[in-house]
Write a structure and sequence with these properties.
By secondary structure, the chain is an all-alpha fold. The chain is about 55% helix and about 0% strand.
């Protein structure tokens, strides 16, 4: 069995570049929030991740 790879080169328009930047920025923000919650919850196991997810202040993240 051999592994194969195909490389593609993308040339996005200016609007697509903005969309990519916003999308990756949102993903990074959500990942960092969840990582922070995971670290905090490992220190105090009393709270479940679902209740911590509801506790995120959405006013701080309106741009998401």
């Amino acid at each position: 069995m051999t592994n194969k790879a195909i490389k593609y080169r993308l040339y996005p328009t200016d609007d697509q570049c903005v969309m990519f930047a916003k999308t990756f920025g949102c993903c990074r923000k959500v990942y960092n929030l969840m990582l922070e919650d995971k670290i905090e919850s490992s220190r105090s196991i009393t709270l479940c991740w679902k209740t911590r997810l509801k506790a995120i202040n959405l006013q701080e993240s309106l741009w998401l």
